[in-house]
Amino acid sequence: MGTSDQDFEAEIDRLAALQDFDRKLKERVDRVEELTGAADEFEAKVQRRRTAVAELTAQREGLEKQRSEMDAQLEVDGGRMRDNRMRMSRVKTDRELLALQREIDLGKEAKQQLEEELLTVMDSLEKIGAQLAEEEEALAELEGEVQAKIEVPRTEASELSEGLDEEKAKREALAKGIDGELRGKYEMIFKRRDGTAVVEAVKGICTGCRMSLPPQLFNELQRYKEVRQCPSCHRIIFYRAPLEESA
To answer: Is residue 230 part of a domain?
Structure first.
């Protein structure tokens, strides 16, 4: 094997080594993103429940205040009506009697309307109380999983992230020895082909996509030590002679 063949083999070996390194690095980074994403999603779910509980609690407090004010107003109106009835016995003229009776009738109407509004408020309180109980139960269940669904994944992600900068620096050092154009092509294919950019051609077949290569291309791969791409999957392909053939 000539010097050019040796150079080609060395280049392919560097690409293969880089691919192995990138696969491990990608697996690690993907796992960190998976753990972080799952923790973020669960945390957002918990926060949505907390927000719902807070909103329902505020609504309940507002309705309870409104009910309390209505109860107080009914008490005041009831006292006024009792006073008016007591005044009936002291009225001296028909005109005063009619005016007092009119005031009593209006008071009754206002009291009836207020009681109806109070019933509506109490009905709303009952419904919101039921909703709040459901939300609080769901929140308690979620918060019981915080350790497993948020804290543990974040801890694991943090541990996996340690040393990533050093690993990326090692990766750059490994990639630096590869031709710039070839490296750019490799990196583009690696991203598009889910971590498999460099494959071997064996018996006329691309081991990346398992498709047959054009016979002329396979012959050229065997004769000329050049970087070529599979016409089907566009991965970088190379041919390595079997050991007995090399001997």
So the answer is: no
The number of distinct structural domains making up the chain is: 1
Q: Does any domain span residue 10?
A: no
pLDDT (tens digit, 9 = 90+) per residue, 95-145?
Answer: 888 888 888 888 889 899 999 999 999 999 999 999 999 999 999 999 999
pLDDT tens digits for range 162-210? 999 999 999 999 898 888 888 999 999 999 998 999 999 999 999 999 9
**Residues 81/111, Cβ–Cβ less than 8 Å:** yes
Q: Which domain holds residue 156?
A: 33-161
User: Which ranges in the chain belong to alpha helices (H)?
Assistant: 3-88, 94-143, 146, 152-161, 164-176, 180-192, 215-223, 243-246
- Do β-strands 205-206 and 198-202 pair in parallel, antiparallel, or remain unpaired? antiparallel
Residue among 242, 243, 235 nearest 206 (CA)? 235
Nearest to 195 by CA among 11, 34, 20: 20
Classify residue 94: in a domain, yes or no: yes
Find, among 167, 181, 210, 183, the residue nearest to 19 by Cα. Answer: 183
Residue 55 has which token pair? 């909103």
